[in-house]
Amino acid sequence: MEVKQVLDAKGLACPMPIVRTKKAINELQTGEVLEIHATDKGAKNDLTAWAKSGGHTLLQHTEENGIFKFWIQKG
C-alpha cells in the first residue's frame, strides 16, 4: 500500500487526533492513503466511526507498543 502522508498524532487526546486527521485527509486526493499514528486509546473507535461517516475506508489498523496505527483511504 502506498502511503501519501503520515500524520503523527501521538500524545494528543480526543478530539485532536480526529481534528488533525480531518485536516490532513482534506489535503489528499481521492484514493490516496493517510497513515495515522496515535496513542489515545479512544482513537480506534473514533477514527473507525469517522472514516465510515465521512465516506473514507479504514484499510488497516494495528497496535504496537501502545502506538495505534491506522491507514485510511480517502473516499
TrEMBL record:
InterPro entries: TusA-like, TusA-like_sf
Superkingdom of the organism of origin: Bacteria
Gene3D superfamilies named in the record: TusA-like domain (3.30.110.40)
Alphabetical list of Pfam families matching this protein: TusA
Entries under PROSITE patterns matching the protein: UPF0033
Protein family according to the UniProt entry: Belongs to the sulfur carrier protein TusA family.
Protein name, entry field: Sulfurtransferase TusA family protein
Gene source species: Ectobacillus antri
Source organism phylogeny: Bacteria, Bacillati, Bacillota, Bacilli, Bacillales
